[in-house]
Design goal:
Chain B: One of its GO terms (molecular function) is ABC-type transporter activity. Chain B: It comes from Herbidospora solisilvae. Chain B: This is Transport permease protein. Chain B: It is a multi-pass membrane protein. Chain B: Pfam families: ABC2_membrane (PF01061). The complex is a heterodimer of chains A (305) and B (258). The model of chain A has no long low-confidence stretch (mean pLDDT 90). Chain A folds into 2 domains: 221 residues, P-loop containing nucleotide triphosphate hydrolases (Rossmann fold, 3-Layer(aba) Sandwich), CATH 3.40.50; 60 residues, 2-Layer Sandwich (Alpha-Beta Plaits), CATH 3.30.70. Chain A starts with a strand and ends in a 6-residue tail after the last helix. Chain A has 305 residues and is an alpha/beta fold. In chain A, 44% of the residues are buried. In chain A, the strands form 3 sheets. Chain A has a 6-stranded mixed β-sheet, sandwiched between helices. A 4-stranded antiparallel β-sheet of chain A has the order 11-12-10-13, with helices on one face. A 3-stranded antiparallel β-sheet of chain A has the order 2-1-4, with helices on one face. With 258 residues, chain B is mostly helical. Chain B has one domain. The longest helix of chain B has 31 residues. The relative contact order of chain B is 0.15. The mean pLDDT of chain B is 92. Classes of the chains: A alpha/beta (305), B mainly alpha (258). Chains A and B meet through helix 2 and helix 3 of A and helix 1 and helix 4 of B.
Chain lengths: 305, 258
Amino acid sequence: MALIEAERLEKRYPGTDFTAVAGIGFQVERGEAFGFLGPNGAGKSSTMRMLACVSQPSGGSLRILGENPVTHGRALRARLGVVPQDDALDLQLTVRENLIVYGLYFGLSLKHMRAKSTELLEFAQLADKAGERVEHLSGGMRRRLTIARSLVNDPEILLLDEPTTGLDPQARHILWDRLFRLKSVGVTLILTTHYMDEAEQLCDRLVIMDKGLIADEGTPRELIDRHVTREVLELRFPPGEQEQAAEKLGGDVEILPDRLLCYADDGDAVLARATELGLRPLTALVRRATLEDVFLRLTGRSLTD
Amino acid sequence: MSRLPAAGGAQLVVLRNVWVHKGGTPWTMALFSVYEPVLYLLAMGVGVGALVGDVPGIDVPYAAFVAPALLAAAMMNSALEETTNTVYGKLKFDRYYHSLLVTPITVRGMVAGELLWAAARALVTGVGFLAVIAAFGLVRSPWAVLAVPAGLLTAFAFGAFGLAAAGYARGWHSFQYVQLVMLPMFLFATTFYPVTVYTEWVRALVEALPLYHAIELSRGLALGELGPGLLLNAAYLLVFGGVMLAVAQSRWATLMAR
């Protein structure tokens, strides 16, 4: 049985005609890392709030750990871990107290939480900050504390909403390492992101969302194979010359605001042809296709708004 | 597997607030809360009291007449402060309640917890101020001990009102409207003179105010003037608080579902 099963899941907000999630279906299996990718406003956060049993679906069906989140929301929340986008830590408590008090909210005992907080501080590499006030922590430390906090109840599923947004590269790598460790001990991870490298690094399987719908689903490799070629040639031209160049070159070309993406299995061959045609790009780069190319193909045309 | 917290986790919200306040003992808290009413007691009760002498129709010194009203008002203010400014800051800026949403704590539990905390906070104020009144020799009856539990009813009524106000507030400026009502209510709801000074229609207006009933209850007990009217005052506070609590619960349910 899948840990999470969603069918034709919808979310509309009352008083508005805005449909955040317009009927999506997916399943998440135990132990996997599952990602929601999409531009801002795609419906990722609305979906996460429904998975966290905080907001009720407006339509379709959703089962989490075999239960209905509408009727069993409270019991389910006790079995989930949630890392919200804004950490929402308790600023009036110290680092350790944040973990202890949060554990009490789950019905755990003070004695249990004293021991558990030490273990979690070690895990989050915050042991030497235990007595500090939260406001003195850096962004990366706060996020690690938020992850530690989400683990007080040894959750079966960990939901992370844009876990590394706003963090510097070092902090991101430390965080990814921690998430890998969780995955290796069997915690099911569900995350949203708009960083393609994060999705490729962390996710076994992902869906790409756009305008409240799922544009496609698969492993990062599958999605790349399905939607783009093996290689991509990136060409930059002076402003205004892009369209002409794309027309001249023909083939499978995506016009972005700042460059052309030419999809081909042999990028160098396309570059050679461009030179033969007399095109003089400012810069030219042949690289392997990535998830970002898939993302742009599936959602790129809507990026203008 | 742990058991889900009872009562929607209200007691854990209280526990968290106690934890945050552990730096200040109940005595320092009481000291801060009785500071203002003690100044009023000195200025009005003792100072102005020296000019007015005994209150016509009431067989007690003026300070003894004012003191129980200040007790009720002090407990009201303690509860209101905790449920308006403190709660609003946690709601909008700390996003504290949003962080509770993903735990087994329910929205009803959050509201109930903050109300309980406000009552506990008012209790500290009440005990502290009663001690001051006693030290001034203004306690006229052993029934005065019951003025503190009566003040808890006041704290319940105004704490529930504060939570509803915090739920509807659009910014800090919204609480200026609360002050716009609270200050005149404090000055005119018979804190400093009996309701008999008013003409018929003003009197009806004053008697509709919740603080009037809080003061009647507190004063009746403190002066040992018991009567069935006190039960009506208590009933008023209970109903007012109950309605406000229902409003607060429904508002917070909407607010947190966004």
